[in-house]
């Protein structure tokens, strides 16, 4: 990464760390800015930090994160090949859904991360991310696995790993979605080396 881009990332993370736009900043332990390759072609977007993420400052390090790691593996990916971020950067107390106001105040940070990364594919994890990024009327049970294109980025949404931990019956559909994501990566980002079994 060139010096200018590295400086832009450092400035963005610093600025984000000072954000007090909503009350989540008062109750969080740590900001969860994002993790992974800052020049990745593929982004995964979750909802917001849980307890473990809040403690460690890294997205998806709790039980849902372990499953996300397995899901990445199934598409031939790993954390070094993608960038992972959330819709809100601070933990909503008690793991409640982020409020729309919190989401809207936090989204500009994700937009600025996306502008620096310039991904080709964006995978939303769950309803909250899909509604914020793809369409306000997105229904995850109906629309998961469908592809959309916005500003030159291919987008899809799959069930959130936490939902897959709670409800095993959603897993077969998710395997299909992950297979389709793997195929899309091969089509759209052929330079991404996939580690397939
Ligand atoms: N769930 C999310 O949506 N994001 C995380 O970082 C962890 C759990």
Describe the structure.
The chain has helices at residues 3-17, 24-27, 51-56, 63-74, 100-117, 127-133, 140-143, 161-166, 171-188, and strands spanning 35-36, 42-46, 83-86, 121-125, 148-150, 153-158. By secondary structure, the protein is an alpha/beta fold. The protein has a 6-stranded mixed β-sheet with strand order 1-3-2-4-6-5. A hairpin with a 2-residue loop joins strand 5 and strand 6. The longest helix is centred in the middle third of the chain and has 18 residues, at 100-117. The chain starts with a helix and ends in a 9-residue tail after the last helix. The mean pLDDT is 96. The chain binds uracil. Uracil binds next to loops.
The number of helical segments is: 9
Number of strands: 6
Question: Which percent range describes the beta-strand content?
Answer: 5-15%
Distance between the termini: 30 Å
- What compounds are bound to the protein? uracil
Q: What topology emerges from the helices and strands here?
A:
Layout: H1 3-17, H2 24-27, E1 35-36, E2 42-46, H3 51-56, H4 63-74, E3 83-86, H5 100-117, E4 121-125, H6 127-133, H7 140-143, E5 148-150, E6 153-158, H8 161-166, H9 171-188
Helix pairs in contact: 1-5
Bound molecules: uracil.
Uracil (URA) binds next to loops.
Key features?
single chain, alpha/beta, six-stranded mixed β-sheet, binds uracil, 197 residues
Short description:
The protein has 197 residues and is α/β, with parallel strands linked by helices. It is 46% helix and 13% strand. 40% of the residues are buried.
């Amino acid at each position: 990464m060139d010096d200018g881009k590295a400086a832009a990332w450092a400035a963005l993370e610093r600025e984000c760390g000072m954000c007090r736009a909503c009350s989540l900043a008062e109750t969080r332990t740590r900001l969860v800015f994002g993790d992974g390759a800052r020049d990745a072609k593929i982004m995964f977007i979750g909802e917001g930090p849980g307890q473990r993420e809040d403690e460690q400052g890294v997205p998806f390090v709790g039980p849902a994160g372990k499953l996300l790691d397995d899901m990445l593996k199934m598409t031939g990916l790993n954390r070094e090949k993608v960038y992972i971020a959330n819709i809100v950067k601070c933990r909503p107390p008690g793991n409640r859904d982020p409020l729309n106001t919190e989401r809207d105040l936090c989204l500009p940070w994700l937009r600025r991360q996306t502008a620096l990364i310039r991904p080709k594919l964006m995978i939303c994890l769950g309803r909250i991310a899909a509604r914020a990024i793809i369409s306000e009327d997105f229904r995850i049970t109906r629309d998961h696995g469908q592809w959309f294109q916005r500003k030159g980025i291919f987008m899809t949404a799959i069930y959130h790993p936490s939902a897959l931990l709670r409800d095993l019956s959603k897993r077969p559909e998710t395997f299909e979605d992950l297979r389709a994501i793997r195929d899309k990566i091969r089509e759209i980002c052929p330079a991404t080396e996939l580690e397939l079994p």
